[in-house]
Amino acid sequence: MDLRHIRAFLAVAEELHFGKAARRLHIAQPAVSQLVRGLEAEFGVILFERTSRRVSLTPAGQVLLGEARDLLARHDRISERMARIRTGETGEVGIGTIPALPPDLLPGLLTEWRRQLPDVLVVARSLSSGLTATAALDRTDVDIALLRGEVSDSGVSAVEVAREPIGIAVAATDALAARPSLTATDLDGRAIVTFPRSADPVEFDRLFGALRARGLRSHTIHESAPGGVDASLRLVRSALAVSLKLESEVRAVRDAGVVWRPLDDPAIDVVITAAWRPDQLGPASRQLVSVLRGQHPPHT
Question: Are 278 and 157 in contact (CB under 8 A)?
């Protein structure tokens, strides 16, 4: 038995006429009769009473009618669900996230993905700071990674999803808070709270290399966990240190004892990039990438 037998039986049962059933199925009438006879032979029952004038269902046919409708409805539901998986309308996608993302970035992305792809489950996976795109995407549960910096790894595609300038968080009582903007030399001799170099050597050297190149000579480093904005700003609020921060990070904490000032010299941007391997994306992941590309055209 296969679905052809069931469809043939159902057409005859609903039309109560083999010729009309054949036209409905777009096959020859003998083929319909053969399919019905095959079903009767398999079950060992008679499904239709046939005379020269009429066709009617037997008691066995009445029972099979309800079952056949349920079976075909289930088949149609399964087919629809499989089609939605095949086209990426449903499924699960793992998003790898580093600790030090702008605070509103991931919630904003998740909200937009849910709006455009409501039946795709997006699960955030925690990544260590300082990973390359290749290392992040080697994880089997990560389809797309949100990383800090530009991405040029072989076999990896990427799009910039956020760019924000770094500034300085200072205590509201600090003399630096009275200035509209700051420079590297304003930080000379200060204690600076930041993530440890071991957590992300590339980013650490990029930031402090730029500061040293513009006049920072003497400073003390207090280490704070990557993404540990609250902990680092507690030191800032106590006027024990200043900190390199995004304005969005300081704004999210809502601490009146801490203010943010732009860093004008040098001007340093933090770039967040979404990265993926095109040849390893499933249908749902490809849909998310399409949304990302629509939200964030290539940066020029």
Answer: yes
- CA-based end-to-end distance of the chain: 60
Q: Which two tokens stand for residue 155?
A: 């076999």
DSSP-derived secondary structure letter, 298: P
User: Pairing between strand 242-246 and 157-171?
Assistant: antiparallel
Q: What's the rounded Cα separation, in Å, for the pair 21 and 5?
A: 12
Q: What is the pLDDT of residues 166-187, one digit of tens each?
A: 999 999 999 999 999 999 999 9
- Note the pTM of the prediction, 2 decimals: 0.71
Please state, as a whole number, how many other Cβ atoms lie within 10 Å of the Cβ of residue 283.
16
**Angle (nearest 5°) at CA 80 between 79 and 86:** 85
Question: How confident is residue 300, by pLDDT bands cut at 50, 70 and 90?
Answer: very low
Helix (H, G, I), strand (E, B) or coil at 152: coil
